[in-house]
Protein: Isochorismatase family protein
Organism: Pseudoalteromonas arctica
Amino acid sequence: MTTQHYPNTRFTPENSAILLVDHQTGLLLGVKDLDQDMVRRNAATLARTAKMFNLPVILTTSAEDGPNGPLIPQITNELPDVKVIQRTGEIDAFDYPEFADAVEATGRKNLIIAGISTDVCLTFAALSAVARGYNVHALIDASGTWNDAAQATSIARMSAAGVTMNSTVGITAELQRDWKNPTGEQLAGLYADLAIPFYQTLIALRS
């Protein structure tokens, strides 16, 4: 198993990219391990994070014209100008050359990945990314699957392969690093709006 040491693999706005894999309207309806609204909010948080930190972001779907449906509007509303890579049947997004090439073209070695489902779309992409030499953080709370057992086995499988488990707030805080950095106020607002709604109360109490 690959051992990742935090100081050596710190994710920054300069070395990271975000991959959102198959956050599709139909698939989201089957998410049972996490609250569906939380998954929507966290996916939107990541989309807005990409804009805030000027991170490359890659969006992809599978069977978009079929039962899986299009990307959820919480993502497309935040990123209306980002092309959606529509795979033609490849379950592992990295098996689709356009996707793999797009990731490589970012020039970033640190990948922040979320997807629906956790055990397929996220896990397959994360494992393939590690095999290609990327450092990967898998965001479990911006993903989702059909039951708790599927989530648990996915976490175990990815962890064994060297993928780092993380949360939406965890990775955004790592990107921010210091509240005094220029994006500090924006990130606090993003937490209040989407990722941690109760944070709005804390902000109000301090104002």
